[in-house]
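quick one before i forget lol
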Amino acid sequence: MSETYILDGRTPVECADETKWGNWLKTSGETRRVAEDRIDGSYISTVFLGLDHSFSSGHRLPLLFETLVFGGPLDGELERCSTWAEAEVMHAKMVARVTASV
């Protein structure tokens, strides 16, 4: 199983060719962004990482999406998941957590 992935629409696809992967990352721009929100000094960002962040931790699926909070009471809070649909839900839950914390 590859550790590098690109998106085909919203679907992660393994990409063992590091040159192709690197070129895709350079040109993918905003297509990697799932969602972003700003709430009372906090910035919540959810993106496609392009690298499996499960680090062989027993996850059956690669962890390819990340939600991260910058600023505010939950600064540094981080969640990861495997699919675009999960990432949308994960982002909404983090927005709710941030909203409740301010």
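fyi The chain is about 30% helix and 30% strand.
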